[in-house]
Design goal:
The chain is of the alpha/beta class. It has two domains: 120 residues, 3-Layer(aba) Sandwich (Rossmann fold); 94 residues, Winged helix-like DNA-binding domain superfamily/Winged helix DNA-binding domain (Arc Repressor Mutant, subunit A), CATH 1.10.10. It is built from eight helices and eleven strands. A five-stranded parallel β-sheet has the order 2-1-3-4-5, with helices on both faces. The protein has a four-stranded antiparallel β-sheet with strand order 6-7-8-9, with helices on one face. Helix 2 runs parallel beside helix 3 and helix 6 crosses helix 8.
């Protein structure tokens, strides 16, 4: 589970990052709205913890830009502003929850899981007999659980999000590894081969298709 925490207070960023890390989540931080947008445009996150009062672009502006650009990442407002109208505004803008500072860390973790659980119920992906649960990080095919590494799961998820459509190697490099340039290696192809051994090899119908000149696609038909 990868979280981006956006807050201009370095103590808050350290507190949240350390706590989430100890809770088994990956946490990256950003000190302002501009940096947050750059990070979110370059890499995929499962959830954003977003402060309202930020230097430069405020939290409202960050969320508005994300939604305008089609980013559907879940957002929890984390702010000292607790007026009812602020909460209503945050939720109406497309935020998923609202937690007021100071907060108990256990409550923050519970809210993160609750938001992701709600989102996951509507975002489980099924292709033929393959089912992917983003929240649980679980993959099943033909009712059998598949044991994937973190990279393999991220790669399969990237293909599943555009099931039936070709996904380029460049897009996979950026989404899975955060690499926005050509590293001059066959890293994507190597990991696709490993993923195929687990997702396709034990079953009759291959789902990971090579699309010549375009990349790869997750589809029951080639």
């Amino acid at each position: 589970m990868r979280i981006l925490a956006v807050d201009d207070d370095p103590k808050v960023r350290t507190f949240v990052s350390k706590g989430l890390g100890e809770s088994g989540m990956e946490c990256e931080t950003a000190p302002d709205g501009e940096t947050a947008l750059e990070i979110l445009r370059a890499r995929r996150f499962d959830l954003v913890l977003l402060d309202v009062m930020l230097p430069g672009l405020q939290g409202w502006d960050v969320l508005e830009a994300l939604r305008r650009e089609g980013h559907d990442v879940p957002v929890i407002w984390v702010t000292a502003r607790d007026a009812l109208e602020e909460r209503v505004k945050g939720l109406r803008m497309g935020g998923d929850d609202y937690i007021v500072k100071p907060f108990a860390f256990a409550e923050l973790v519970a809210r993160i899981h609750a938001v992701l659980r709600r989102r996951s119920e509507g975002h489980r992906v099924k292709v033929a007999d393959l089912e992917i649960d983003p929240l649980a990080g679980a993959v099943r095919r033909g009712g059998k659980a598949l044991d994937l590494t973190r990279i393999e799961f991220a790669l399969l998820r990237a293909l599943a999000e555009r099931a039936g459509e070709p996904v380029s190697r460049a897009a996979l490099l950026q989404q899975v590894w955060g690499i926005s340039f050509d590293p001059g290696t066959n890293m994507v192809d190597v990991h696709i081969r490993r993923l195929r051994r687990k997702v396709d090899a034990p079953f009759d119908q291959p789902l990971i298709q090579t699309v010549r000149g375009s990349g790869y696609a997750l589809s029951p038909t080639g």
